């Protein structure tokens, strides 16, 4: 290894080979860059080695591979292999087909992951040899989650709860963060997993596991909790402290190629819904039921952790921490004064956590608690593009655009919003994590009763039941929502204030299922879900001054300090990364305006709409 003084400041974290692979670069413990591989390859949830994400991080930091102190991988594959082998042996002879299908990949690649990672890294810089590569380290999966949750948080000390499908063995883990250290307290292990239980219902209701869980959460308010008792009586033995065991007779994920089995189907009134088929009241009721169970488990675990640690603050990570309805209940009903959720709570955030674990645990470097907030910087950690670069790209097309000064640009966009135009908004550094937070966003007027349906069907080409979140000025959040705290990463759901709601007639209140979509429930109907809730992003002047200024300009025209904010993509594609991605999405949808930094494109000015019918074919207008 080269001289330590050269290698003392830079750490590269990597997550890969399961889903949502990503890379993160630290410099002196500061998060310099982080991005998911899918944004570059345009393959949603890309699980491959994140070569393009790594290359971006190194460019952003202006460092080479041999400048790194360590490269850190986010879990331990040999321990995971031990779990897989032990699981097959426990359930043998069941699962032989699954075993035969999975072993060749393990024996060919995953057991030799260290060599594979080195080979991939060497491809990034053919000019260096294997001996020039930095040391390669491996953290435990839940340690990565815990580090990603605590170390960037604004708290000097906090309890940490990590809940996901499964890492090596752990499915739920509790930690205590103090100063620069995180101490493991206890864990629940595979196959007893809240994340996999929720994913079983995701699968059974016809959505894709590891990507459709948010659809189940969004579908839940349309249903009744009529299956809750069946879940408690048959699937999960939940104890008062929140710990639990699953009855594996109803599941197939240990030994099979599916999540659930025929016994599960008999319990819930028939076979699973076929993907893309019509949703029925049963699926809505299933979604509502598993959502209520998940919230109860999370609340009990949080209360137990508070009782055991007496901590004032709680940090969350793991895929289940993306369940913002459960997070909202923990914030409102739980015992903690402060709650902070890692914005890249899923496996992508493992890259960040792995690097932070090496910096703080292995190197014993101190944390820097920022007086103004957390260390994620709004999670704006991806690539950015200058006006010059954007104009160079636009010049290569036959588009019509205008470049305006800062204030003039914001004024024109605010006017368009007030006129119920749908706008693709592209500025600054791309967000890290699954949420668009005002830099790669599609935005619209929250006051418009038609906007939710319009964006779902004509722009996003997705299911009509899916709600949209509001981006609200931080200083105005209490005027619209029953939430006194902060939600910069759109990971907290809170109720719309009673004063903003409309009173429904008895006939309207009697509506159920998708009929509820027809009702205008508040002054901001486009961001009010059918249960009067909203998934909130509080917009801060210090972390995103331009997006904050845009909402202020919109408020000056309309008196409304909140807008619709949804991710800049269509169904089945990752969030856009480059101006070219944004331009292509703009042409292929019915967006009215595209804003690329200070460059504005109006759809009516373009030579052709370019809307491609195949994107919208599955979701014709009602």
Task: Summarize it.
With 622 residues, the protein is α/β, with parallel strands linked by helices.
Write the layout of secondary structure elements.
Layout: E1 10-15, E2 22-27, E3 30-36, H1 38-41, H2 51-61, E4 70-73, H3 77-91, H4 96-108, H5 113-124, E5 136-138, H6 141-150, E6 157-163, E7 170-178, E8 181-189, H7 194-204, H8 213-219, H9 228-235, E9 236-238, E10 244-246, H10 262-267, H11 281-309, E11 313-317, H12 324-333, E12 338-341, H13 348-362, H14 387-395, E13 402-403, H15 406-418, E14 423-426, E15 440-445, H16 451-459, E16 469-473, H17 477-480, E17 492-495, H18 506-509, E18 533-539, H19 545-558, E19 562-567, H20 579-588, E20 593-596, E21 599-602, H21 613-616
Parallel strand pairs: 1-4, 4-5, 6-11, 11-12, 14-20, 16-18
Antiparallel strand pairs: 1-2, 2-3, 6-7, 7-8, 9-10, 13-21, 14-15, 15-19, 16-19, 17-18, 20-21
Helix pairs in contact: 6-13, 7-11, 8-11, 11-12, 15-19
Q: Can you describe what's shown?
A:
This protein is α/β, with parallel strands linked by helices and 622 residues long. Among the domains are: 4-143, Nucleotidyltransferase, domain 5 (2-Layer Sandwich), CATH 3.30.420.40; 387-616, Alpha-Beta Complex (DHBP synthase), CATH 3.90.870. The chain is 35% helix and 17% strand. The protein is built from 21 helices and 21 strands. The chain has a 9-stranded mixed sheet with strand order 13-21-20-14-15-19-16-18-17, with helices on both faces. Strand 6 and strand 7 form a beta hairpin. Helix 8 packs across helix 11 (281-309). The termini are far apart. The model is unreliable at 1-6 and 610-622 (pLDDT under 50).
